[in-house]
Amino acid sequence: MKTASGKDAFTIKKTLIELRKDQYVIKNAYRRPIIPNKLIHQRNILPLDGEIALGKDGSLISSGIVLTDPVVCSAILCNYSKLKEDSWGDFESDMWYLLTDFDAISGVALEPYPLYLRLVEYKVDGMQNIDIQKALEEEFGIKHSVEYISSLWRNKIPKLIAEAAEDDYLNWYYTQVEKGKFKKCSRCGQVKLAHNKYFSKNKTSKDGFYSICKCCRNSKKK
């Protein structure tokens, strides 16, 4: 991996990720149901089945317990300590593998947002929003309302994690299952998958997408 570069390094990285995903698939045979503490309002047994597929337009279609669903990510965050404690060291449980993937995806999603990462750490440690407000103000010099902190915790952060999981799946699919096309944004210079999640469609271009990625186009509009 140290000597690889460009697409070779990217492919190697995705292969390593897939090894962990294969372990998760193998563990599906156990299918031991769990009943997490607030994941659902009723005490119904919840099997960790989940499926992800691509629609005709390339969009993700998911069902069940998958990390591309913000609702699932929010439920895991709200019950993280309990789920982590119950599955710790149980390498035959689906939950252990799900949380392993969740930790990896969360790290990628929140790395650009140190304040969000710290907020998650405080919430997992059991701190109340009023105390988190003070701690964040001391560390980052920003005072958010407790309502805004609650919104970040239940909406913004789960969406960021789900989006990172979606990125991970798309990059895996178009490098391991189907050969995808990648293109460089003419503005930021980043190489991204030629997909409608990253580039707006343009019928006049050869590949059917604009040369500027959606992120840059949205930044210009703002």
Task: Describe the model.
53% of the residues lie in helices and 7% in strands. The chain has 222 residues and is mostly helical. Helix 5 (114-124) packs antiparallel against helix 6 (129-140). It has two domains: 6-180, no CATH class; 181-222, no CATH class. Strand 1 (50-54) and strand 2 (60-64) form a beta hairpin. It has a two-stranded antiparallel sheet. The protein has helices spanning 6-26, 70-78, 80-87, 94-110, 114-124, 129-140, 146-177, 214-221; strands spanning 50-54, 60-64, 182-184, 191-193.
Cα distance spanning the termini: 38 Å
Oligomeric grouping of the chains: single chain
Strand content: 5-15%
Annotation field: number of helices? 8
Overall shape: it is globular
User: In which range does the helix fraction lie?
Assistant: 40-55%
